Amino acid sequence: MQFSKKHLTGGIFVLFLLFLTGTSTVVANEKGGSKTQLLMDLDYALKNAKENFSNLDDSQSLIGEEIKAINEQAVSLKGQLDYIEILGAQSKKKILAIKKQIAEIKNQILTLKEREGTQSGYRDELRELMQSLVSELYIQYRFTTDVGKNLDSSKLLLASVASSDILQFESGLVAIAEVAESAARRLEAIDSGISDTREVIAKKEKTLALLEKRVRAEQENILAHKLSKEVLLAETKGKESTYQRLLAETIREQDEVLQQIERLKDNKKFIEEKLDAVDIENYQKTIALDTSTVSRATPLNWPVTPTLGLSAYFQDEEYLNTIGIPHEAIDIPVLHGSSVRASRSGIVSKVNLPKDKKGYAYVMLSHKESFVTLYGHMSDIFVEEGETVYTGQVIGLSGGTPGTDGAGWLTTGAHLHFEVFKDWKHVDPLAYLPIEYLPLEYVPEKYLERAQSLTRKVKR
């Protein structure tokens, strides 16, 4: 042999060291990144949410000023029509903002997929070199050992390897074996990095799908606002007196709700006794009917999944300025006909089905600890007064699309109107719901700290 085995093994050894050195930075970055990826994603989400909240807040302030200007004279048909126009413009602004987010996430996914391709390339090269190394080790092992698997000096002499190089050759074999073992660890690290990257891509794609869903929802809102305007004009025939009559009807409906609350207060003992009688069954039913947004840590649960955020808040100033009635609820955008679930086990204390099917339909539930919940703009109701219902049980279908059954006269789009009473007084539902299931950009500032502390526990 003109080319000694020492040179051959030494060359392979150097080649592997160079390759592993080149990949070590990538692997180290991937492994280091994998440990902090969740926190980085969370920090990014929280930062993004704060920015979105700030932008939304600024937008709301501008819209609030416009609405205030509209209503400086008085609550009127013209004011309501102008308000609907503003809502449509707001939806268009939201669509533009969301589309910007979509473009950013698509770019992030593209970058991540390129990284995955690079990682896969390193992995394939490393596997190929490892196979060559293992093959060379096997050849050297067979060539330089005897039947008893001991190093055979005579075979080394026949291979023209100088006696002074025998010990170096044996050390070279050991070194190559160590490099092979190190390479195997590197390969495992790269595989882990690829897995982490794919997991991040999956999360990004899930977020992308959600944002695209929000765009569709806002596009539907624009159509609903247009329909709302058409329905309002059709019902009023453009007459201010007719609008005021519809407004008075809405106020009367709210007064009826408050009167019902007073009746429940007077019958508190009876309600508590009835709920106590079904307490064990209540617990069993609650377990069976759990949904993805049921929390044991809060008194109430979301009646519909708040994937699309909120379209109106508790004591919303815009609503008051425009319609002239306090908004003692939250409005949760949801597709018309979505299942509405009992926020907590309780008794059906009121089912309101107006004679005019297009009037305001709602369900009221009484619960323990002096809680009462109300579910408004119901397009269909599946329960009866006096019936016991359980957490997560479907009690009806959502509505709110202008001109449809149960929507009422002043609705501006499909949503669930959700009211909460505690100790017979209106309270902010967000104070009693698992806030971590609400998209962060829709969480009011006073609840943001609680939402941030709980978000880590939720798989979005």
Kindly describe this structure.
The structure is a single chain. This protein is α+β, with helices and mostly antiparallel strands. It is 60% helix and 10% strand. It has nine helices and ten strands. The protein has helices at 5-70, 77-144, 153-158, 166-236, 240-266, 268-277, 279-288, 317-323, 445-455; strands spanning 330-333, 339-341, 346-352, 362-366, 371-376, 378-381, 388-389, 394-398, 415-422, 425-427. Strands 1, 3, 4, 5, 7, 9 and 10 form a seven-stranded antiparallel beta sheet that branches. Strands 2-8-6 form a three-stranded antiparallel beta sheet, with no helix packed on it. Helix 1 (5-70) runs parallel beside helix 8 and helix 2 runs antiparallel to helix 4 (166-236). The radius of gyration is 34 Å and the shape is elongated.
Produce the secondary structure layout.
Elements (H helix, E strand, L loop, with lengths): L4 H66 L6 H68 L8 H6 L7 H71 L3 H27 L1 H10 L1 H10 L28 H7 L6 E4 L5 E3 L4 E7 L9 E5 L4 E6 L1 E4 L6 E2 L4 E5 L16 E8 L2 E3 L17 H11 L5
Antiparallel strand pairs: 1-9, 2-8, 3-4, 3-7, 4-5, 5-9, 6-8, 9-10
Helix pairs in contact: 1-2, 1-4, 1-8, 2-4
Q: How many extended strands?
A: 10
Largest sheet: 7 strands, antiparallel
Strand content: 5-15%
What is the typical, i.e. mean, pLDDT? 77
- Shape, principal axes of CA atoms: elongated
- Span between N and C termini? 65 Å
The proportion of residues forming helix, as a percent range, comes to 55-70%
- Helix/strand class: alpha+beta
- Number of helical elements: 9
Gyration radius, to the nearest Å? 34 Å
Low-confidence stretches: 1-9, 11-21, 23-40, 70-74
Oligomer: single chain
Order of helices and strands: HHHHHHHHEEEEEEEEEEH
